[in-house]
């Protein structure tokens, strides 16, 4: 006799597109309930509309500006009220703030508000519910946390700081709450395509990037979703306080051929 699995209540931020959308889809396909959010209003988020249509009883979407702490608190409160608990938080929302180290102060502040503070505050707001469920926090950072390229500040600086956030949440909130990070590299999303499109020839830029990956391709959003699903499971119960690099071997290369 097969015992019916109780669906988990999973919060995922940044679900309107890209990696966040794929993470939400993966948990939904697993039978879980996903409460997602993104900056975009629902009428401007076709992917969210599709998931609402496909999973009317298991997917919920809120438009949230995660640079506003009061908006994060309202979102978490609303999410918990829906089902009375929260089991998993995937803190994914963010964007590339590639302005260079000489960026304006406004760029610096926006970057840290979105790409660092929002993750910390989301965790703080969800902590009471996660303590009750003995839940898991997964923070999505970037391979830029480990090594970066010219012009990618201040984004890479905030992503590096998320490594320490994962560590601190683990050692201060464990064992009740387990925290782990994921650092994706080049993932085939609209955001990365926009970076390719910024070059004179987008296809040449894409091909050049692919050649820098030992696996011979760039990543897929669903692969990040599958890793989240594993890390949120009991099978990953001994993984905590660390950030897993998911970059197709890109960071294993000491230098590129054109630099030789």
Automatic annotation (TrEMBL):
Pfam families on file: adh_short_C2
Keyword tags: Oxidoreductase
Keyword Ribonucleoprotein in annotation: no
InterPro entries registered for this protein in UniProt: NAD(P)-bd_dom_sf (IPR036291), SDR_fam (IPR002347)
GO MF, one example: oxidoreductase activity
Family of the protein in this entry: Belongs to the short-chain dehydrogenases/reductases (SDR) family.
PANTHER family: OXIDOREDUCTASE, SHORT-CHAIN DEHYDROGENASE/REDUCTASE FAMILY (AFU_ORTHOLOGUE AFUA_5G02870) (PTHR43639), SHORT-CHAIN DEHYDROGENASE_REDUCTASE FAMILY PROTEIN (PTHR43639:SF1)
The protein's name: SDR family oxidoreductase
């Amino acid at each position: 006799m097969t015992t019916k699995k109780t669906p988990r209540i999973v919060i995922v931020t940044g679900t309107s597109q890209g990696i966040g959308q794929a993470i939400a889809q993966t948990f939904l396909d697993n039978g879980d309930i996903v409460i997602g959010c993104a900056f975009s209003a629902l009428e401007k988020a076709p992917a969210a509309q599709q998931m609402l249509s496909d999973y009317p009883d298991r997917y919920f979407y809120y438009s949230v500006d995660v640079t506003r702490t009061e908006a994060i608190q309202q979102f978490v409160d609303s999410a918990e009220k829906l089902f009375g608990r929260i089991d998993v938080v995937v803190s994914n929302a963010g964007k590339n703030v590639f302005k260079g180290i000489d960026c304006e102060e406004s760029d610096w502040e926006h970057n840290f508000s979105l790409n660092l503070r929002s993750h910390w505050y989301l965790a703080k707001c969800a902590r009471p519910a996660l303590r009750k469920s003995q839940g898991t926090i997964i923070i999505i950072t970037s391979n830029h946390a480990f090594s970066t390229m010219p012009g990618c500040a201040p984004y890479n600086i905030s992503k590096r700081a998320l490594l320490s956030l994962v560590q601190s949440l683990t050692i201060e909130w464990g064992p009740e709450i387990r925290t782990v990070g994921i650092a994706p590299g080049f993932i085939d999303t609209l955001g990365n395509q926009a970076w390719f499109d910024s070059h004179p020839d987008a296809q040449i830029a894409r091909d050049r990037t692919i050649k820098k990956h030992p696996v011979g391709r760039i990543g897929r959003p669903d692969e990040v979703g599958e890793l989240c699903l594993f890390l949120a499971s009991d099978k990953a119960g001994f993984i905590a306080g660390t950030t897993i690099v998911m970059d197709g071997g890109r960071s294993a290369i000491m230098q590129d051929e054109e630099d030789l």
